[in-house]
Amino acid sequence: QVQLVESGGGLVQAGGSLNLSCAASGSIFTINVMAWYRQPPGDQRELIATITNGGYTHYRDSVKGRFTISRNNAKDTMFLQMNSLQPEDTAVYYCNAKSLITDTEDWGQGTQVIVSS
To answer: Cβ distance 66 to 17 under 8 Å?
Structure first.
């Protein structure tokens, strides 16, 4: 099992930036793919960016060119650099880790991002 803890959320004005972090512990050697999801108020959770162990990344169209997902060399921390934030980016942001070996996924507790207009 993998434990995930997000940090870096907060309140920012439109056009501003935030950098979210996700610290992973436990059986991190089993992780194949990590991802950031978000859940806007009153809406469903949505996938916004993924990164594989090989460094391949994929983004939701609405965040392409504004958000950047990355991991450190030890692969125990994942980041989401968010630039040009807009009010529609307001959501709780969740870290996710998937293992193809164990066919499981783990979630963090979420971090709130509020973008004011």
So the answer is: no
Task: Classify residue 90 by its DSSP letter.
Answer: -
- Report how far residue 71's alpha carbon sits from residue 87's, in angstroms, rounded to the nearest whole number: 26
Tokens of 57: 């990344």
- Give residue-wise pLDDT tens across range 9-55: 999 999 999 999 999 999 998 999 999 999 999 999 999 999 999 99
| 22 phi-psi bin (left φ>0, alpha ψ -120 to 50, beta other) | beta
pLDDT of 102 over the 90 cut:
no
Residues 6+ apart with CB under 8 A from 112: 9, 10, 92, 93
| Distance (Å, whole) CA 33 – CA 59 | 13
Task: Give the helix, strand, coil percentages of the chain, each rounded to 5.
Answer: 10, 55, 35
In the three-class reduction of DSSP (H, G, I as helix; E, B as strand; rest coil), residue 70 is classed as strand
Determine the Cα–Cα distance for residues 98 and 30; give it in Å rounded to an integer.
Answer: 8
